[in-house]
Task: structure prediction
Amino acid sequence: MKIKNNLITIGLFSVLLITSCGKERLLEEPTFEVKTVATNYKVGERVNFSFSGNPDIISFYSGEIGNNFDFLNGRLMPATAKFSFYTSKLSTGQPDQLEVLVSSDFNGVYTLENVQAATWTPITSSFSYATSTAEVYSNELDISNVVTKKDNLYVGFRYKTKPRAQASNLLGTRWRITNLSFLLISDASTDQKALAPNSFMNVVVSSNYETNRVRLSSAYVEFNGNATNTAEATEGWLITDPVMYNGFVDFGADKSKQIKTVGTPSVSNFNHVYNQPGTYKAVFTAANANVDGSKQIKREITLNVTP
Result:
């Protein structure tokens, strides 16, 4: 009989324990409000947000680029594409051999047949070039509107050598190209796409081109005519990998600034400074969370920031 009573006691204790744990898992809607003393501020002026309530988590979105609640699923921004490089002539020979072209319909198969089948828009005349061994900056060209905006953009350097007998007995000029720079520029950032030439460029040559007369290294690209077979015309290309560009840059999702996390002390206010004029939607999200999930609410205040 004593054993039976003990079993009854243990059973009641288990029920109470389960009930107690169930209550601990109850997740309440967060209580949270935000206010400011004004909605109009000057650039550089401190905005004080005061809070009421004590949620487990508080996150802040200022409304600025990179911290805007409206872009949680990603941010596409209009961008311009700019290209530049340096050239030098290591030896002088045939004139007008080097060209610069862009394409948005090249199929990405780096053979001469496929390169020649693509539509290439010449942009050679938009740049400056060396006349000696001294390096010359090409100047920066916005090529955003030169090509039809598609998924891929290719930039190519083409180098043609005439048969020596047709070129006043001149050999090919030895061109060197360095400091290639491909920039996608938007209001959010300047993103350099091109790195070491041998990591993003591809050599394409005609079948009669001698080995290593069009060359790549980590520091430069170089064109030279044939050394032995100079009786035939040759064609060589250096073409970039596809640069993903359709007139926009994807910066990914904007992120919040954490003001309070689970287990940290209560927060009664928060300060932020806007450094650019504009109208901003300041958003706070407040959440209560446990192992079973979370409940979240949003509060927002529209602020006007003037110069």
Summary: The longest helix spans residues 2-24. The chain has a mean pLDDT of 85. The chain has two domains: 11-74+252-306, 80-244.
